[in-house]
Write a structure and sequence with these properties.
The protein is of the alpha/beta class. The chain folds into 2 domains: about 70 residues, 434 Repressor (Amino-terminal Domain) (Orthogonal Bundle), CATH 1.10.260.40; about 190 residues, Endonuclease, Chain A (2-Layer Sandwich), CATH 3.30.870. The protein is built from 12 helices and 6 strands. The protein has a 6-stranded mixed sheet with strand order 3-2-1-4-5-6, with helices on both faces. Helix 4 packs antiparallel against helix 5 and helix 10 packs antiparallel against helix 12. The longest helix has 22 residues. The protein is globular and about 70 Å long. The two termini are about 35 Å apart. The relative contact order is 0.11.
Length: about 280
């Protein structure tokens, strides 16, 4: 899912930076003085006030406490992060939080909800190499925050189909990929999560590129979502949902059984661990 860079509009990022400048000046503090009071680096705070960077959650909370403005900066931060997501993705993320069941098929990369920080960081770094390191870390944080739905008292039923290519592509190198595959196996320990692999031997299948998502919401509604490079589209009409569900079912019919899928994941994990030892000269 791509992210929108800020432009010259009155964005939440700009509102946040102006609120910081206004409160700092009202307190008759320089940026350096405020940085010392908050125990954050002077240069970091300056970039936030100039609108070049969003604050971390810790800094936003510290500013709220220091200026006595409960949740002002924390809420602006959340709004700015949400605004960084393109319109076609916001609906998905809002609905995802309330989903009772999520079915996902990906052909090239690990689904965002299953990504480790390092795996996500590598994908975002390559896809957004023009952004600053601070901005890249904010995108990583935003992606990791999506996983909070697994911490619900009753998590959603999460059924994932992975093309074998997802396991084969060594994102971030063998060490990063080893940790990603171990995390994937750990996630399958939950009774709420199911992972199946669509092997290369299955040949052609019904979802050859991008990703497909089907979600059952808490009100019983079914919605779909299809995504490719820099483009995504919700699927909401009954006719299109039936076709999308059919595509998903056809792909699932060619997938390995769960136990065989896990065995294949373990095989790739062993290969990554072997390659990692070779790389490190172990």
């Amino acid at each position: 899912m791509e992210l929108n860079p800020d432009d010259d509009r009155m964005t939440y990022r700009i509102v946040l930076s102006r609120q910081l400048a206004r409160h700092r000046k009202n307190a008759k503090l320089s940026i350096r003085d405020l940085a010392a009071q908050l125990c954050f680096p002077y240069g970091y705070l300056g970039r936030v006030e100039r609108g070049e960077q969003l604050p971390s959650e810790n800094l936003a909370r510290a500013m709220d406490t220091f200026f006595g403005v409960p949740s002002l900066f924390a809420d602006l931060l959340k709004a700015a992060e949400d605004a960084a997501i393109p319109d076609y993705g916001r609906m998905l993320l809002r609905k995802e939080k309330k989903a009772k069941r999520i079915q996902k098929m990906t052909s090239t990369i690990m689904p965002g909800l299953l990504q480790t920080e390092d795996y996500a960081r590598e994908l975002i770094r390559v896809g957004h190499g023009w952004d600053s390191e601070e901005q890249l870390e904010q995108w990583v944080t935003l992606r990791m925050r999506r996983k909070e739905l697994f911490e619900r008292e009753v998590p959603p039923q999460y059924w994932v189909l992975l093309d074998e290519a997802v396991l084969k592509r060594p994102i971030g190198g063998p060490d990063c990929m080893s940790r990603q595959l171990r995390h994937l196996l750990d996630m399958t320990q939950s009774v709420y999560n199911t992972v199946q692999v669509l092997p290369f031997t299955a040949g052609a299948h019904s979802v050859p590129g991008g990703s497909v998502t089907l979600m059952n919401l808490d009100d019983g509604t079914l919605i779909g979502y299809v995504e490719g490079p820099m483009v995504g589209e919700p699927v909401l009409t009954s006719d299109r949902l039936i076709k999308l569900s059919r595509k998903f079912d056809l792909a699932r019919s060619k997938a390995l059984p769960v136990d065989d899928s896990l065995s294949l994941i373990r095989r790739y994990l062993k290969e990554c661990e072997r390659d990692d030892r070779t790389t490190r000269g172990c």
